[in-house]
Amino acid sequence: MNSLFLTNKNDLYAEISGGVQLCSQEFLEVIRLISNTVEIYEIKISKNLKHRLIRFAGFDYYHLYNTKYYQLKLIEILKVQKIDIVFINKAELVRFSKVIKNEFGTKIKVVVLSHGNESGDFLHDLTHPSSNISKFKLLKNKVRLGFNLYTESYFRHRYIDLVCAMSEEEVAIEKWLGAKQVFYFPRLIVSKEIGWNPKLGRFGFVGTLNHTPNLIALEQICVKLNELQISNLEIRLVGSGEKEGRNLESKYKFVSYLGRLDDVNLETEACTWLYFLNPIFWYSRGASMKLGQALSWGIPVISTSAGARGYKFKKGLIPFCNNNVESFVEQMIGKANDMTLAKNMFQKLINIEAYKYCNIEIGQDLAQLILELNSSSSSS
């Protein structure tokens, strides 16, 4: 099988890797395992005036890329390299599926490697608007949500052969949107000890701080801790969203914002955390890639069940709290000064057998499904 991996370069490589880059690299690793050859074709966000105006107006439903600009070159590469299957990295590139199918039909399979649909987060942003948003902008966003859902469903019904989803929840959403076939691609965890030497009462968080689910959860936690006048713990924040990070740091004496850290400095910082915090109080798009990084290092975690979507664990490995701030803060307070409890979890997490799936198994299951797709199209 000859494969082409269609991606925005920034979604695959970055000076400081975030969840998008980690997820993209996991997808690519498995694709390389099951393919004879893999061609990486990189594209850039369109600066075309039409697309810029659409985005400026706020109706940018999957118009980040100018497919016409890449059409001839992409078709040429697919022919010269004798590509059998195109893996589209991120649902935002879904319009390229029409280009491919209009030229090759069933000869080339198109697979979307979904990091979550745009409407998934946009729905929550829309239902949790900032207090100063205008009624006009709120109305415009409601219309935009409808366009997003329509576009997601339209392309799945017509041009997509398979969608790889990041969680079981998104498998159900993809089926509802009209995907012909859906494959659950759980997160990969590769054990790597980093010399964990924690400090009592120290908790850490890594993520995008201006991302609505993250920010709302962190704000609720800080408010609750402040109300309870808890003084024996600290929260260390790492990630983009400096304005939000500085704001939390200025309002709460137990919060420290460290900015964005590269991999080396993040490891150095994270090995001092007693627990990694993963507070997601509703089912947002995709999965928490930083949770997987913490687990691979063996750092004990406090997580909601919603925050752990997209992972497969052995039963009882992590005692998830409920998807609300009260349950989450209760666990933080109860564990803040119990080193023995944290060390017991560390011993469980560094055992790779605690995780049910590896890249080889995922690759085998994905390859089998693709084989079935090819068989069904050749017989029809």
Q: Beta fraction of the residues?
A: 5-15%
Number of strands: 11
Straight-line distance between termini: 20 Å
Number of helices: 15
Helix content: 40-55%
Report low-confidence residues grouped into runs of 5 or more: none
Helix-strand category: alpha/beta
The radius of gyration over CA amounts to 22 Å
Spatial strand sequence of the major β-sheet: 2-1-3-4-5-6
What overall geometry do the principal axes of the alpha carbons give? globular
How are the elements arranged and paired?
Layout lengths: L1 E7 H4 L6 H16 L2 E7 L5 H9 L9 H14 L4 E5 L6 H9 L4 E5 L4 H10 L7 H24 L3 E4 L2 H10 L4 E3 L17 E5 L5 H16 L6 E5 L3 H10 L3 E3 L5 H8 L4 E4 L10 H9 L3 E3 L21 H11 L3 H11 L9 H21 L1
Parallel strand pairs: 1-2, 1-3, 3-4, 4-5, 5-6, 7-8, 7-10, 8-9, 10-11
Helix pairs in contact: 2-15, 4-5, 6-7, 9-13
Describe this structure in a few short sentences.
This protein has about 375 residues and is α/β, with parallel strands linked by helices.
